Amino acid sequence: MRHLIVITMLLAATPALAVVGGGDIALKNKGGGVQFSHDAHVSEMGVECAQCHDKLYTNVKQHKKVTMKEMQKGKSCGSCHNGKTAFGVKGDCAKCHKK
Q1: Which end of the chain has less Cβ packing within 10 Å, N or C?
Q2: What is the pLDDT of residues 41-93, one digit of tens each?
Q3: 37 phi/psi in degrees, rounded to 5
Q4: What is the Cα–Cα distance from 4 to 86, expressed in whole angstroms?
């Protein structure tokens, strides 16, 4: 009986331990790889899934590579990372890009 209670408690706690959304996504590019963290955006910053999905990224095919110039004009990450909603994409490259 105790084992059943422990198993039930563990199963109930599993969603709290699960990876948020799609987990981390590694984006490769010439300027240095970018590690996108769903957890940092959703859990830590409070971004709702629908703020990006349904608008910017509906599916894998829709996710296209964009240049930094395009991001500075509000495309892709630049739609939030504009210096107002979140830190801008212009300036400290090391915030996102790792060599």
Answers
A1: N
A2: 988 888 888 888 766 666 666 667 788 999 999 988 999 999 999 999 998 89
A3: -110, 115
A4: 46
> Beta strand pairing status for 33-37 and 97-98?
antiparallel
Fold of 49-91: Cytochrome C3 (3.90.10)
Question: Is 71 strand, coil or helix?
Answer: helix
> How remote is the C-alpha of 91 from its chain's centroid?
20
Looking at residue 89, what is its pLDDT?
93
- Contact between 24 and 37 under an 8 Å Cβ cutoff? The reply is yes
- What is the DSSP secondary structure assignment for residue 73, as one 8-state letter? T
pLDDT at 32 over 60: yes
In a 3-state reduction of DSSP, which class is residue 44?
Answer: helix
For the chain, which residues make up each domain, given as ranges?
A: 1-47, 49-91
